[in-house]
From TrEMBL:
CDD domains: ASKHA_NBD_TsaB
Pfam families: TsaD
Annotated protein name in UniProt: tRNA threonylcarbamoyladenosine biosynthesis protein TsaB
Gene Ontology biological-process entries: tRNA threonylcarbamoyladenosine modification
Residue ranges of every copy of the Gcp-like domain listed in the record: 32-223
InterPro entries: ATPase_NBD, Gcp-like_dom, T6A_TsaB
Organism from which the protein derives: Runella defluvii
Cellular component, GO annotation: cytosol
Amino acid sequence: MPLLLSIDTSTRGCSVALHQDGQLLSNYDLLAEKSSSGMLTTLIYNAVEHAGFQLVDVDAFAVAKGPGSYTGLRIAVSTAKGLCFALDKPLISVNTLEAMTLQLKSFFPANYLFCPMLDARRMEVYCAVLDAELHFVEATQAKIMDEQSFTELLTERSVVFFGDGAEKCQRILGQNPNAHFPTAAIFPSAKTVGELAWKRFQKQQFEEVAAFEPFYLKDFMATTPKPKSY
């Protein structure tokens, strides 16, 4: 009965999950800022140990490949690759937005579309549009929100906008009757990364560990640190 350990640090938080034969055994989610850098390895250890296993028992490691925070994605992918190399295990990657959609899709009619959004500074978001079968209707992209955003799609279909970038969209499209905005906050989670990774594991859809890189979507832009006041 294969064990899969999944990691998601696409945004400010940190999430780890352990699945066996596609069934969730343990799951830890931290939403604290920058928790991935300090807590990821601890959560990995806890998720495995509290389920009664050791890291050597894990059959494959899965990671949310992005889009998302440059630093968060780099931490998750480097950790997953390190575990794969050390334990000689395969690596599975999952699109962060696809995994987010899996959290929500069963709560809406089957003909709805889903647009997960992650904040990407100012009026920009990382987003995609998926249907209830998790097929991509619009590919993952970095999109600047304005009055014309999604207007053509919304004339034909009902669309659910969610994630920490959806607030920008709601200010612009909130009056459109086909635009829906759940009140519950939806954050990336390793739980649904693991559910999708199990399907890929069954099909032996593995990444080339040495060559694999996160799906950054756009180049890293460093910020100028503020001067210190003494």
